[in-house]
Specification:
Elements (H helix, E strand, L loop, with lengths): L6 E5 L3 H12 L3 E5 L10 E4 L2 E4 L10 H9 L6 E5 L2 E5 L2 E4 L3 H5 L6 H15 L12 H9 L1 H6 L1 H9 L8 H14 L8 E5 L4 H13 L3 E3 L4 E7 L2 E6 L3 E4 L1 E4 L3 H7 L5 H7 L3 E12 L8 E4 L8 E4 L13 E9 L10 H15 L8 E15 L18 E3 L12 H18 L1
Parallel strand pairs: 1-2, 1-13, 2-9, 6-15, 13-19
Antiparallel strand pairs: 3-4, 5-8, 6-7, 10-11, 11-12, 14-17, 14-18, 15-16, 16-17
Helix pairs in contact: 1-9, 1-13, 2-13, 5-8
The chain binds flavin-adenine dinucleotide.
């Protein structure tokens, strides 16, 4: 312990919190992590046979260099596999492959000139490096103009609506640019099939290695313990749980901003306005364990407004069923607004809504194929990037002394993801070390 060692409380044991805790402890501070659920946060897993599976589908892009470097450092680099993946699109009752220019040219749900236009616009976006020029325009406005109404509504507009629901016309074009840019940077060779990253043994391998590294560096790890309030005291912060209270010199919260604002009283109004500049979409994700495969595609975007879920991710078309005792694992994903009625439905009610639609994807599908099912809900799943967000983003250092915040709303211009949670954890730890 150094002479200036502080006691630091990290709230939240997702990838941002764990990475920051590790760096702060390595610098000689006395760190405790409080996590209300399981370590790993949104990338947490559940046991499945003799392995584990993510509650929310996860993969890495080749451009996700921060998490790759961390995996190497933690000695689990050899567990990261790069596996071929594919994307398809379900529209007008058809399943259409969509893995590049050739597939786009065959996309017969729009006329050939519209296909060419979508191709040209996408190719043009791929070479745009300056995201700042998209800050003042929504993706909806920009893409409608660039593609024309018909092509937009049948393709990227349908996907925007599927992902963002009633927020579809508020999302900044910077978000869309980021998606195209990431995909471009991630493909080392555009002519080869895209490869995505996955950990042999699931993303739990990363959480376990991070937790172990934290313990080795002296961090006190408390999972299944939720924080109920954070109160400023003369010498720092009082961290309260249902069963007690502990005083620390400094707090780093990595919870969503909505939770952070419930935990901390007295945040200045202008900082709260920054926190509220951005809304979150929630996600409801169903995981099915099946005796048979539903489709032969890994990632399927659904652009059919009559379907109650908007993406089908057949994980075992990516990391094969032989890794799961021959079972097939399929996620049905739906992003929803905070007041969406699905948040009020029970698991059975959600399944009753979903089941008839699976037959549209595979006419042989039968409910008897399902051997297990889980439904996971996350309220702060996807930040909705507003216009001019670079001027609204809340600083990691809050205006209250010795109180820091690092969450997915501060990842910009990129979209949230495990790679950026690791980068954020590194960045906030560096700033705490330099400025506290
Ligand atoms: C459906 C879905 C699919 C995704 N797919 C991918 C993907 O393919 N690839 C990828 O890289 N990323 C993906 N992500 C995103 C990625 O998982 C997240 O961006 C990343 O894990 C966020 O890490 P974090 O530490 O910032 O936040 P979180 O993981 O949200 O961690 C915050 C932690 O704070 C804890 N917490 C909250 N309140 C309290 C409290 N009161 N007391 C104590 N603890 C508290 C929470 O339990 C949580 O563990 C996906 C996310 C979702 C929802």
């Amino acid at each position: 312990m150094t002479a200036t060692a502080k006691t630091i409380g990290v709230i939240g044991g997702g990838y941002a919190g764990l990475t920051a805790a590790l760096r702060l402890a390595q610098a000689g501070h006395n760190v405790t992590v409080w996590e209300r659920g399981a370590f790993g946060g949104q990338a947490a897993t559940i046991p499945l046979g003799d392995t584990r599976i993510e509650i929310f589908y996860h993969h890495l892009f080749q451009s996700d260099t921060h998490i790759q470097a961390l995996a190497e450092e933690l000695g689990i680099g050899d567990k990261l596999m790069w596996l071929p993946s594919d994307v398809s699109y379900f529209a007008d009752g058809k399943l259409l492959p969509l893995n590049g220019a050739v597939d786009l040219l065959k996309l017969d749900i729009i006329p050939i000139w519209d296909r060419l236009r979508v191709g040209m616009v996408t190719a043009w976006l791929q070479i745009q490096k300056d995201w700042m020029k998209y800050e003042g325009v929504t993706a909806h406005e920009w893409l409608t103009k660039a593609l024309g109404k018909n092509a937009y509504e049948k393709t990227l507009g349908a996907q925007l609506k599927a992902k963002f629901g009633s927020y579809y016309d508020r999302v900044s074009m910077v978000w869309f640019w980021g998606k195209i840019w990431l995909r471009t940077k991630s493909r080392r060779n555009p002519l080869e099939q895209e490869k995505l990253g996955y950990f042999n043994g699931s993303f739990q391998v990363v959480a376990d290695a991070l937790v172990q590294a934290c313990r080795d560096a002296g961090v006190t790890m408390k999972d299944q313990v939720g924080i109920t309030s954070l109160d400023q005291i003369d010498s720092g912060w009082a961290v309260s749980t249902d069963t007690g209270c502990e005083n620390v010199d400094l707090v780093l919260a990595t919870t969503p901003s909505t939770i952070f604002q419930r935990l901390v009283k007295g945040l200045p109004e202008d900082y709260q306005a920054r926190l509220n500049a951005l809304d979150y979409e929630g996600a409801i994700v169903t995981l099915l364990e099946l005796d048979h495969s539903i489709t032969d595609t890994y990632w399927m975007n659904i652009a059919d407004p009559t379907m109650p879920f908007t993406a089908v991710i057949e994980h075992t078309n990516f990391f094969g069923p032989e890794n799961y005792g021959g079972k097939h694992l399929v996620y049905l994903s739906k992003y929803v607004e905070q007041d969406h009625p699905y948040f009020g439905l029970s698991d059975d009610e959600i399944m009753t809504e979903y089941l008839p639609h699976l037959k549209k994807l595979n006419s042989s599908f039968s409910e008897e194929w399902i051997s297990k099912r889980w439904i996971f809900r996350e309220r702060a799943a996807q930040p909705i990037t507003p216009l001019h967000y670079s001027q609204k983003i809340p600083d990691l250092k809050t205006p209250l002394d010795n109180l820091w915040l690092a969450n997915t709303t501060q990842i910009y211009p990129e979209d949230r993801g495990t790679n950026y949670a690791v980068r954020l954890g590194e960045e906030v730890a560096k700033r705490i070390l330099a400025e506290s």
